[in-house]
Write a structure and sequence with these properties.
9 helices, mainly alpha
């Protein structure tokens, strides 16, 4: 059962919500829910502020990883938010459609490896086959593998949080581009 955001937000967390609204253009329910547990809200805020961006790894590989982890985890909010950045991250429409269904054939070896890695890390139990380990070492430096694993873990954290609290999609993605997959 979703928690309705009808509660008072502590004064010291209001700037965090303002920044979230400014960055996303919306009032995301997950950020409001976190204000019920202020220490977690501050921790997640730091986690988000310091997490991987395109300067740490190319935008396309990060986008493929985020979208794949969101779809694999089945989080409507995460799929909606991460898929919305497809164009800004350099994906073409047909590539986005493929990533949304787990088909990485049109992507470079590096991007396909990021997608396969995101899928593997988003399933339980985590199983990394030898071929995937080889491709990770072939396509990514040690630092890039850490950035990629951390980014996927971050998406998985949001996926579990949002699903556990019944957070729905928020309308970030324009489905005129293509249909998002139906998530759990």
């Amino acid at each position: 059962m979703p928690i309705e955001p009808t509660f008072a937000v502590p004064w010291y967390l209001r700037p965090m919500l303002w920044v979230t609204r400014w960055v996303t253009g919306k009032d995301p329910l997950p950020a409001r829910l976190l204000t019920l547990f202020p220490r977690a809200a501050v921790g997640v805020g730091m986690f988000e502020a310091l997490t991987a961006g395109p300067s740490d790894l190319d935008a396309r590989s990060l986008a493929v990883a985020r979208i794949t982890a969101s779809v694999t985890g089945g989080c409507p909010f995460c799929v909606d938010m991460n898929a919305a950045a497809w164009k800004r991250n350099g994906l073409r429409v047909e590539e986005l459609r493929d990533v949304l269904v787990g088909d990485f054939a049109r992507l470079s070896g590096r991007e396909a490896t990021a997608g396969r890695y995101a899928k593997a890390l988003s399933l339980t139990p985590v199983v990394l086959e030898q071929a995937l380990r080889h491709d990770l070492v072939t396509h990514f430096t040690a630092r890039e593998r850490v950035v990629l694993a951390h980014t996927i873990a971050q998406v998985n954290d949001w996926t579990r949080f949002n699903q556990g609290l019944g957070v729905p999609a928020a309308g970030f993605f324009d489905e005129a581009v293509c249909q998002l997959p139906v998530t759990k």
